[in-house]
Amino acid sequence: MLLPVVLAAALMNAAMIAASAVSTILTADELGPSLAGVPNTAGVLGTAAGAIAVGRWTTRLGRAYALRLGYGVGVAGAALTVLAAVGAPVGLLFLGMFLLGAGNAASLLSRYAAGEAVPEARRASAMSAVVWASTAGAAGGPFLLAPSQSFASWLGLPAVAGPFLLAVAAVFGALVASTYIRTVHVAEQPARAQHEQTAASRRTSVLLAAGVMVAGHLVMVALMSAVPVHTHQHGDGLGLLGVMLSAHTLGMFALSPLTGWWIDRTGPRPVMLTGLLLLIVAAVLTTQSGPAFTPALFLLGYAWNLCYLGGSARLLGTPFESKVESSIWAISALAAASSPWLYTLGGYPLLTAISAVLAVPLLLFVLRSTAVRVTPR
Known about the structure:
Elements: H1 2-31, H2 38-61, H3 63-85, H4 91-116, H5 123-140, H6 145-154, H7 161-178, H8 199-225, H9 227-233, H10 238-253, H11 256-266, H12 268-285, H13 293-315, H14 321-368
Helix pairs in contact: 1-2, 1-3, 1-4, 1-5, 1-7, 2-3, 2-4, 2-14, 3-4, 3-7, 4-5, 4-14, 5-11, 5-13, 6-7, 8-12, 8-13, 8-14, 10-13, 11-12, 11-13, 12-13, 12-14
């Protein structure tokens, strides 16, 4: 039952990567380079809105139907991007990317479906498999861009339409795969981590987990958004920048199975604590230009992974799943926009100080809290 969830997530990520890359080029050609970021911004906002929508559908219809609806909206969005590529008004591209964001939200939230599809002792490992598979789709998608352009030309369409056609096929594949997902309705799930905890302590633990996820994502986006500016100011070429970004992506996703195994063994609390600690260490290391900078970006990626999966394991089956996901993506847009400006004001020392302000209090709260602990299995 886990395979359809993993396959759908991988396909959706391949679609999002393909459409995002080419939508920037199409917009630059149609409206000028200054507006090239609009379609990807629409995709981010669509993901934030889509997370709320998928969450509501989950409550009313159940997890499996909610994911299908999300992927279905994504198919419609991908179709609109194709129309924009073959000559329709470019506004359809922005709307299409926004609707594709709903499919992306379904892909992100599908990790919770994976957690429901397996016995409790393996829930975190199942969720981590979806996160890892999403990376496979994101990494594989770019290799299909050139062949998809050739295919579009063969059909007599503009070459730029190829990646959008690829997105349609990939999202439709995700929709088909999602029809094989079978999960219990959220309302029928036994409440997680009830044990001997009071309602107040459970609420505190969930809010802390949500805070860890949001803080981890905010720090990661803020620090990484400044990397291109940092490398340019230090005279580093695009080759080195590519290595840095690859190291960071590797840290974000490659060790996901290890994180899942760790959570299943000990519960999310020590994983979140380690994630927050590594978040602070990585932020401090980014202030040191030189050989330590690239390893710091890898460490930053894995710190995000620990915060994201640790918090997700605690949120499974709670009303906060979609709300936290929506917050994460809304904050991403804000962090990505403000980070280069903050970097010009104070460089990485300023970004590190802001990161510490966010992470240190959460680290202390989680350290002192016993409510976040889940009984080891």
